[in-house]
Design goal:
The chain is α+β, with helices and mostly antiparallel strands. The strands form nine sheets. An eight-stranded antiparallel beta sheet has the order 7-8-9-10-17-14-13-12. Strands 1-2-4-5-11-16-15 form a seven-stranded antiparallel beta sheet, with no helix packed on it. The chain starts with about 35 loop residues before the first strand and ends in a 9-residue tail after the last strand. Mean pLDDT is about 95; it is low at about 1-10.
Length: about 725
Amino acid sequence: MSSAPSVLNSPDYASLVEPRLGNTIGRWISFASACRPLGLVALSPDTRVNGDWGCGYNLADTHIVGFSHIHDWQSGGILLMPVTGEVTTDWQSPFSRDTELCKPGYHRVHLDRYGITAELTATVRTGAHRYTFPADLREDAAILIDLASQCGPCAMLDARLVQTNPRTLEGSVINGPTIRKPKTHPVYFVLTLNTDATLEPFDPARVQARLSLDRPAVPVTIKVGVSYTSLEAARANLAAESGDKTFDQLHAEAHADWNTHLSRIAVEGGDATRRARFYTDLYFSLLGRRTVSDAAGTYFDNTGPEPRVRQIPLTPEGRPHHRHFSSDAFWGVQWSLAPLWSLAYPELIDEFCHSLTDMYHNSGYIPRGPAGGADTFVMTSAQSTPFFACAINNGLHRPSDLEETYQALRKNHFPGGLMSKAGYEHTTCKGGGIEDYIALGYIPEDLPPVGMHTHGAAQTIEHAFNDWALAQLATALSHTADATLFTARSRNYRNLFDPSVGFCRPRERDGSWTEPFDPSQKKGWTEANAWTFTYHSAHDVPGLIECFSSREAFVARLEEAFALSEKQKFFAPRDHHNLIPLDFGNEPALATAHLFQLAGRPDRTQFWLRRVIDTIKAGNSPEDTWGGDEDQGIMGAWNVLVSIGLFSATGACESPARYQLTAPLFDRVTITLPAGRTLAITTTGLTPTATNYTESITFNGRALTSLELPHTALFAGGALHFTLASTPSGLTAA
């Protein structure tokens, strides 16, 4: 595992973050406050617990149900609630946002019903609570432990709880299956207090226990160590990460950890609100995909007929070589996390590749959305291929057996691999359409209704992008025949382009076009429409231009898509993504603005990027949003890249990878790179309240003649300077 650079004595960027942003349309996995970057524990208040969408902490609610430790992709559990009096059911309490404090690594709320101030913080694998009861308390004080209620998408099954001494409890609960995660998995925990307590009798079949306290005169501190593998590992995680540290020490460490990570990209100047929003976006890019391995490197493998506990290899110093992770889909990661992490957090992209390769060794698949120790097969195609191509071709991931890793990725591009499976297709290989894709050059619209997202046109275009990504890796590894094969397949999107209408569109098995055609129809498309997917093939803009017959026609139709989308504020409500040409609250549209630049019109890229940012991605209050579901860092990472003027429409998959340059939104951006290097991005002529156009650019004092730089140049560090103007002029070359 590569070492991460550290930033000392940095400003307090964590204080600028608003963790509640976008919360009213979020999910169980979307919000966390008392947590660490990519932490297993995401300890947060819950206002709703029974469901995925809108559950967990929701800004629209006025009552808190409790504080649970796991808010993960298809996982949840271990809910605590401090109370006074003889409360046994309906223990929720109103709270006021006027007295709430929510920052990275810390959350404080006042439970008005009980007069209790609750504070939360965390390490990677442990949660810490501090409850201050009323000074004039005349009733019994207690902690309710709810291991029975559904947390997020998972029913809680077969819970166990034992008090081993007056200040320690141990327990476990089984996370039930979901439509996305068909197998159960365990969660183990060890809970310690700083005061004696008595566990009252409870129904072992439905563990909603009451832990009685002796009217505490001092704040009650609770620490909870969590593991997916065993009670022994939960104890070890608690000892290794929390030990004898006080709540205030743990809080300070969490705050410092977030500042260290956020300080990798230091921005100065520009608009103050936009700077704060920048760090909120950066925070979310490091939040949702979670560590699931123990401090000692053990992790839960649920890919086989029986679950197993496995061990990550140890370094000569006895530390795990990398962590193991859960993750929502890699759908859209090529336009968000991959190019961002490749510059600012290269150790993370390396760790994730190792984790996904571990799962290949266990199951025979490199997954695209692991949860509960197995793949959920979320979304479509071989979406982890661009992630690996980016990591390997940029020299950020060095697998122990590079050829094995390549062959594992290649497997997903043939029958039986991930291109055979549509969303959540666990036991069959029918919905991905790979056989038709190979034989016909496209996937028709008569796929069997297995899984979800079995849309032939969308999968054709997604397969084509991922084939291109694999071709880049094949080229770098001198697999010449494969490079030729996958490059040819990457042009299959052209088989769906109908010049008579100027769109890609669905086709039937006999080759005829699906009728009737409306570019806003749902049929054929995954969470988008023909407007979006026509411009999805960012890997081959020259080919797309050929489809349109001219650069002017290509640009005109794209301009029309943006103009229509602006009327709807670039955002469509969930499950209605097709009702807008380009929905920037969802993944498929994320590269579209940069296609103007790749077609020779960088002025329109900069114009429309600014419109999108200002319309739906500019504020930093709890009521502001990304325009849609944040999807575990994808929206936040896209915002970060656009704000600093760096983007890769091709997912940084080539060797060398290409980054497009656009006008930054700040006077100065400093990215801390490994080995003490820095990339300084500065501007002259920035106008924070208006669209800025690139007039000229220099890199290390040399004038650039194009609006691109390779990853190798950026990652080596140096000085990138933009001269900006209020009207389009200067550089036009892609």
